[in-house]
Amino acid sequence: MNGKKTLYVCLGVFALMLANAASKADPQPAKPPLAPVQVNIDNFSFSPATLTVAPGTTVTWTNRDDIPHTVVSDDKTTFKSKVLDTDDTFAFTFSKPGTYDYFCSVHPKMTGKVIVQ
Amino acid sequence: MTHKINDELVVEHNRDGIDRRGFLKCMAWAGTGTLCVMQGGILKSYALSQFDESNRAPMAGDLYFAQISDSHMGFNKPANTDVVSTLKAAVDKINALPAQPDFLLHTGDISHLAKPEEFDTVDQILKSAVAKDVFFVPGEHDVIGDDGKQYLERYGKGSQGDGWYSFDKKGVHFVGLVNVMNLKAGGLGTLGPDQLAWLAKDVAALGSSTPVVVFAHIPLWSVYPEWGWGTEDSAQALALLKRFGSVTVLNGHIHQTMQKVEGAVTFHTAASTAFPQPEPGKAESPGPMKVPAEQLRQMLGITDVNFVRGKQALAIVDTKLG
């Protein structure tokens, strides 16, 4: 081939490669859902006390204690469960990255943390 | 766990007449009912067995009232599957006292889950008390879920803010404080600046010889902060009461009797009528403590308080339910 044709072929191949890469970077609508994650409440503590999850994860708290507890974010607005008696659950989906400190509003010495990254 | 404490503790007067060695001995946990009475600086303690109904002297004070606490109506787990019966037993115990109290104090956790039917049941049971007046302060269980709205509707008439108030009976000034609202992560009980400002105004005009009784749910002294058994700003409240010659602080929350004397201030916590909790640090957590069924009522109780004009301290007696 002559020089110009080679250039056009290279450019074409390059363009195809770019297009291929670009199409791979397009958002895929059908991602598989993230597995739910459990936190147990027992003996006046959250277990695990510190949890790290990916954005989009749903965390479910289950009260296994014989005393009611709540799950409330420190700012008291991001998430706030109703009172959880034994075996009651509360779930919250963490979409945004960040660190979420929380506590039991009835027994404020009980604290926990969810790190979303 | 039984603590046997000698009668007539060492009388050791410093210049201020306070029996300090006796005070230290009397700071033992009083789980099975110990009466510490301080009169004129001398501390005496009595094992409760000396104070059953048959040999107790008739109450001859100027003011006599009873305290119950932590009825947790609605609780139904193994530690006590019948809190209705034990509350009724507590009322029966009060009705059987040699003299009738002028009124009752309930230092909170009336309900277990702040449900309407739980409050209704307690009100119903208390109707059978001979003493018709009952004064309440909320526990953290009473304000769950609605920031105390129901509690205030039912028991908050005449109160300010989150439900604090005061009243006078026969020359004794009573102050009901609320330290279970706006709890912060990692924190203890809290009174808050509004309530402290109100308290300052409330006692401002009182003469220093006026006996003062303060009642609140969470202890106003540092019993065991690791378990949240304390109030972070109680020192500010006590500073406002420092000038008074006789201050009695009555609390609940810890489901066991405990007493501490500090100068002119007597601190006392009542047993629960529902279930006991472990002594500080003696268990993983401060939850309901299961005991053999036949021992349950020995771990629950009522308190009665006698005020004799001219005596510095109020005489506080704990009585077990069984």
Q: How do the helices and strands line up, and which of them pair or pack?
A:
The complex is a heterodimer of chains A (117) and B (322).
Chain A: H1 3-25, E1 37-42, E2 45-47, E3 50-53, E4 57-63, E5 72-73, E6 89-94, E7 98-103, E8 111-116
Parallel strand pairs in A: 1-4, 3-8
Antiparallel strand pairs in A: 1-2, 4-6, 5-7, 7-8
Chain B: H1 20-25, E1 34-39, E2 42-47, E3 63-68, H2 83-95, E4 104-106, H3 116-126, E5 134-136, H4 149-155, E6 165-169, E7 172-176, H5 193-204, E8 212-215, H6 234-240, E9 247-251, E10 258-262, E11 265-269, E12 301-307, E13 315-320
Parallel strand pairs in B: 3-4, 4-5, 7-8, 8-9, 9-11
Antiparallel strand pairs in B: 1-2, 3-12, 6-7, 10-11, 12-13
Care to give the gist of this entry?
With 117 residues, chain A is of the alpha/beta class. Helix content of chain A is 20%, strand content 34%. Chain A has one helix and eight strands; from the N terminus they run αββββββββ.
Structure description:
The complex is a heterodimer of chains A (117) and B (322). Chain A has one helix at 3-25, and strands at residues 37-42, 45-47, 50-53, 57-63, 72-73, 89-94, 98-103, 111-116. Chain A has 117 residues and is an alpha/beta fold. A four-stranded mixed sheet of chain A has the order 2-1-4-6, with no helix packed on it. With 322 residues, chain B is α/β, with parallel strands linked by helices. Chain B has one domain (20-320): Metallo-dependent phosphatases (Purple Acid Phosphatase, chain A, domain 2, 4-Layer Sandwich). In chain B, strand 12 (301-307) and strand 13 form a beta hairpin. In chain B, helix 2 (83-95) runs parallel beside helix 3 (116-126). Chain B is globular. Chains A and B meet through strand 7 of A and loops of B.
Give the radius of gyration of chain A. Answer: 24 Å
Q: Order the strands across the largest sheet of chain B as they lie in space.
A: 6-7-8-9-11-10
Helix content of chain A: 10-25%
Order of helices and strands of chain B: HEEEHEHEHEEHEHEEEEE
Under CATH, the topology of chain B is which?
Purple Acid Phosphatase, chain A, domain 2
CATH architecture of chain B: 4-Layer Sandwich
